[in-house]
Amino acid sequence: MKKIAIIPARGGSKRILRKNIKFFIDKPIIAYSIEAALKSNLFDEVMVSTDDDEIAKIAIKYGAKVPFLRSEINSNDIATTIDVIAEVIEAYKKEGRIFDYTCCIYPCAPFVTDQILISSFSKLEDDHLDCVFPVLKYGHPIQRALKVKANNRIEMIAPENMQIRTQDLEASYHDLGQFYMFKTEKIISDNRLWNDNTGFIELKEIESHDIDTIEDWNLAEFKYKYLKNIK
């Protein structure tokens, strides 16, 4: 039963320049994903898929493999994560290396830990799932969401929920965009990251932060330091 961790990290980040190797506190942010994967001892191979020589060198420095650079067709803005994963799996298959399980860990996910990865794999096996990924519960029911109309007035998206108590509304969750742990053959054949036989690991607000802007980055560093201090 072979397992691979794939960390997709192309060089062309737009919103934060060189985001995947920008220092997060004291090391390049991609190092956190690599180290969590290695520390978990789950994987027979921890590799980084990149089109960028500098990212490749940093990845190797922190213990990942970069056996080849990503193809040009999967290095543009429209290439999907599943495209990148399929390319990696096919390249290893040509070398006679088949992986039963894959974990795609994003490079800007410093809150991922070895224990979260281990727990996710255990859930994947124990519950006979095809995929597991981390989610976070919305802090306020999305059924009470608001929108701004063309005349700059506010209204509810679902006004039928106006008189329903928030505690009586069903909880909703969102994908944290940190990683996906899955059965390789099933997800590749479905050509999507998760399917109807997918489970989840629920994390806390303090255990995650989406990083799209410099403000996000600074807040993520603050949360990370706080999390480490309370542990």
Automatic annotation (TrEMBL):
- What are the UniProt keywords, alphabetically? Nucleotidyltransferase, Transferase
Q: Tell me, what is one Gene Ontology molecular-function annotation carried by this entry?
A: nucleotidyltransferase activity
Q: Which organism is it from?
A: Winogradskyella litoriviva
Q: Which NCBIfam families match?
A: PseF (TIGR03584)
Write down the top EC class of this protein. Answer: transferase
- Gene name, per UniProt, is pseF
**What is the protein's given name?**
Pseudaminic acid cytidylyltransferase
**Any one Pfam family match given in the protein's UniProt record, by short name:** CTP_transf_3
Its domain of life reads Bacteria
Entry EC number(s): 2.7.7.81
Would I find tRNA-binding among this entry's keywords? no
Which PANTHER family does the annotation name? HAD SUPERFAMILY MEMBERS CMAS AND KDSC, N-ACYLNEURAMINATE CYTIDYLYLTRANSFERASE-RELATED
